[in-house]
Amino acid sequence: MQIERLDAAGLGVIADKLEAGERLTFDDGVRLFDCPDLLALGWLANREREKRHERRTYYNFNIRLEATNVCVASCLFCSFARLRPGDSGSYTMSLEETWDKLRERAHQPLTEIHVVNGLHPDLPFDYYLEMLRGFKRIRPSIHLKCFTAVEIAFFADLYKMSDEQVLRELQSAGLDSLPGGGAEIFAERVRRKICHDKCGADRYLEIHKLAHSLGMRTNVTMLYGHIETKEERVDHMLRARALQDDTGGFQAFIPLAFHPDNNQMRKLPAPSATETLRVHAVSRLMLDNIPHVKAFWIATGVEVAQVSLWFGVDDLDGTVQEEKIYHMAGARTPEAMTTSAIRRLIRAAGRDPVERDTLYNVVTGPESPDDAPVLVQ
Ligand code: V47
């Protein structure tokens, strides 16, 4: 890109810093959000993406399980939770039902189960421990990415344990890593308004730090496109970056686009495609120490996820299968994708698909029989 265009977009100094490997500041982050030239911003983010990953785009053969939607928290953005067992639309799976989700897929070469639940007030801790043990009995090699830091904090308070004890017991039962959910926006002003009755930002980060110290990898998310300011987004990114400097345990940063259907913030519009591209691009530029930026295609939409691969993103999550949180909030994306569909959409976007496991070990490289052209009869 021409220097004049970067300068005209107010990005000249930032481009030089990035070129020199210098870290961007809070003010740089705000400037990136203010930049009128989205393509110049995308060009810079793409340069950082390609430095790390060249043309590679990662995805995972995974399933999603939400074992219960009973939840004592009252997050305004949530369309999934029901307050009490027995409330209309509430459900809680038996352990056998959770294990069936894996047994039903005995023929699929899955490498990960991602479990996220509501904060259920009445289930015993053993329910979660047994769930993990059962998954490992059925398929010992499966990676268990389960329970957000918010759930870990809730377990600790409910079962009167320390956060560390909870993590250690879950780890002994088979827990391999933590997903990034529950981060929302770290700023207290926003949390007080949209999720006042669940674990705060400091504890969320402390739990990730503990998980890292126990040898687990984790992800970190950011819910954007509701009432947060650009300064609060940058602050969120910098708090994740600071923890990563300490531990190196985050694998991916995942911006999550707010979906307004069927929740208490339904009067707000959903973030636009351009806003989504901007947030992913700024994430890549600010988070110089987190290896991957993921576009969760269920939340961004498939087409925007494809474009995001030129705006800093190098990971598309995976096949997912049976996602509920976004579909109850109005997502119109499919509920699952086959690996060949993901590979094809990555190729169509001009990138090379690489199937990874949760820890980013390569399962299938760019060449795969799945990539053969489909013949239309
Ligand atoms: O924490 C809930 C978000 C998260 C809505 O770690 C909503 O690999 C938008 O964390 N509109 C759960 N977002 C999902 C999640 C996640 C997703 C993909 C990958 C990973 C990972 C983690 O979903 C919640 C919340 O921030 N959420 N409701 C909504 N209406």
Task: Walk me through what this model shows.
The protein is an alpha/beta fold and 377 residues long. It contains 15 helices and 11 strands. The protein starts with a helix and ends in a 13-residue tail after the last strand. The relative contact order is 0.15. The model has no long low-confidence stretch (mean pLDDT 94). Ligand V47 binds at residues 77-79, 116, 179-182, 184, 219, 221, 223, 254, 256, 258-259, 263, 296, 317, 325, 329.
List keywords for this structure.
377 residues; alpha/beta; 4-stranded mixed beta sheet; 4-stranded parallel beta sheet; 15 helices; 11 strands; 13% strand; binds ligand V47
From the spread of the alpha carbons, the general shape counts as: globular
Widest beta sheet: strand line-up: 9-1-10-11
Helical segment count:
15
How far apart, in Å, are the first and last alpha carbons?
43 Å
Major beta-sheet overview: 4 strands, mixed
Structural class: alpha/beta
| Integer average pLDDT | 94
State Rg. 20 Å
DSSP, total strands: 11
Poorly predicted residue ranges: none
Helix-residue proportion: 40-55%
Q: Bin the strand percentage.
A: 5-15%
**What compounds are bound to the protein?**
ligand V47
**N-to-C SSE series?**
HHHHEEHEHEHHEHHEHEHEHHEHEE
